Amino acid sequence: MHPNIRDRAVTTSAASQQLHRHDFRNALVLLLASALMLTVLNQYTDIDLWFADLHFDREHHRFPWQHTWFSVTLMHGYVKSVLVWSGLLIIAGALLDLVLTSCRLPSFPLSPLHRAQLRVLALAALLEPRLVKTIKDYNYLQCPWSVDRYTGSEPLLRILDAVPSGMQVSDCFPAGHASVGMWLVTIAVFWLPHDRRKALYAGLAGLSVGLVLGWVQQMRGAHFITHTLWTAWIAVAVAVVLVAAFSRQLRTSARGSVEPASVPTSACLSASR
User: Fold this and answer.
1) Do 90 and 118 contact (CB within 8 A), yes or no?
2) Per-domain residue ranges of the chain
3) Which of 57, 100, 151, 180 is deepest in the core (most CB within 10 A)?
4) For residue range 247-266, what is the model confidence (pLDDT) as tens digits?
């Protein structure tokens, strides 16, 4: 390679890496700022109560959408199942591809870039709902239908409040139902790093799926609005971390090339014995 061409390639690579670090720092700042904003909204405003009041029928003392076919059978049943199974299929496909490529066996005809994108999406589908579920298992924030202001008997607990003695874990915060759709924010990775505007639109479209699911749960009295917003925050944070972790692979220029099918090697065969 001509020295000038080599120097330009090194300079371009260094500039790309510096830009990536700058983007990651900006994303972290935005995540921290939005986490602070959500904390303030939950602790020091009545936004949760305002939105819950909109869906509560005080005359009949109930949430009218709590047991409807639309909210329970369609959204909490069919739509949730489709999203869960979609995530499982993506995880299974990425895992199968990983095993086959590790053993140098014929796998899916993917470029290095597309393979990295698939793995990022699969990890998001695995990690984001699992992280939300783990937080729910140790959290005391109540659902609207459990709060004495509405149909329950528990006191309203805010995010920074001390937990009253004897209170049981609520399994309500953050919004678990919304999490089965929030991981779709990571579909933005398929337009990274070459088209950030389309990546932004794709991420917002994916995030909106979870937000709709969360909104339906708010109508039922199953969650406050900040529960859903915290789940969205977790989904975006997981996406940012995964994109940063796979940044080198994502910067690889596939240019439409497809990796040839690998031939089984004696190493893989011997490892399986």
Assistant:
1) yes
2) 45-254
3) 180
4) 888 876 444 444 444 444 44
